[in-house]
Amino acid sequence: MARGAKPIFVAATRQHVGKTTVSLALMAGLKKRFPRVGFLKPVGQQHVTVSDEKGSSLRVDKDVQVMKEHFALDHVAYDTMSPVLIPKGYTSRYIAGEHSRDEQADDAAVKAIRDAYEAQQAASDFVLVEGTGHVGVGSIVEMSNAHTAALIDADVVLVSNGGLGRAFDELEMNRRMFAAEGVAIRGVVLNKVTPDKVEMVRDKMSQVLRERWGVPLLGVVPDLPYLGKATLGDLEGVLEANLLAGHRCRGLHYGVHDAFLVTTGLRRFLRRAFEQREANWNRPLFVTHATRDDLLLGFLAHHQKKMKQQENEIHGADMWAGAIVLSIGASRNFPDLEFVADDHQPLSYLVKMAVDTDAPVLITNKGTVDALECIKSFTAKHNITDRVRITAAIEHYEPQIDFDLMLR
């Protein structure tokens, strides 16, 4: 494929299906096939502040930072990678007429996207483009993924969660929106497929896509639960918490299925959490109230014991690195009627013990139930500080994608 070929636009059937992870794998594979690969996120929502090539600060979509820095895309500038950002509150202002259609769709945004793509194309041998959310995202401000893909004459790789019936239903609905804009589907990637169903899904979905759409199934990716695990740093952010101690655990991953609200007494907690599971439960995440001095003391004692056994080492699948979240607030559905200072802080000697043992202890203003709900509902996303997850994702996804078929 020569320079000037159609870009690949990665789109998803809905949120949280792994679009960015597939984009990471595609970028890794494309860089092995083309000297210079550009990257564009035409319309972004969640942004970060970065320093550009001249040292100036600017806002870009968070996925742009991951792609540029992880793959060292030095041949393209930040200001050509994230042309349009839709900040919180923009939609309401748009509907109210504060941003006219002429200003947004027909003029400023369209020009910004086209100019950014042309800059990417001029500097690159191939351009990878990532959409935002599902295909219809942005429609309210007349900048849907389908419309954006049409603006730059891109072909689409559609990503959906695995299976057959439901997956195809979602794919068909999204395909029709692209078809309405005259955008072609280059192929499909099915993600998070139950491992023992991979071959069956590959066989059946390949047949359906070929017969109904005339497009190939480019990959079937087995589910890898590890990639959905949040780091302690992620949880620190979502809980608006303070990591009291155990800062070296900030980059370790904790699964939402290993997060529990502890309401039992100390004896039962020690028996169930440690004695019965000591051999195979290394990264539990306990949530309790800061007034449960007994549970915190039991956790700290166990942590101290494990650190002695592990010679203070925490890295490794079989190494203990459990963490505890202490709530100093009340749940929304059961608020305090009056403020009592003693209810809003752990005992000082336990705080000192946590610091001395370097045990991972988070303190949040949220109530215990609210904190657990935040943890359970959180979807881990790629960020440049978590290169372990990025590398694991690429190693798992890239071999599952047929690049020759995609580039044919």
TrEMBL record:
<dbReference type="Pfam" id="PF13500">
    <property type="entry name" value="AAA_26"/>
</dbReference>
<keyword id="KW-0315">Glutamine amidotransferase</keyword>
<dbReference type="InterPro" id="IPR028979">
    <property type="entry name" value="Ser_kin/Pase_Hpr-like_N_sf"/>
</dbReference>
<protein>
    <recommendedName>
        <fullName>DRTGG domain-containing protein</fullName>
    </recommendedName>
</protein>
<dbReference type="InterPro" id="IPR027417">
    <property type="entry name" value="P-loop_NTPase"/>
</dbReference>
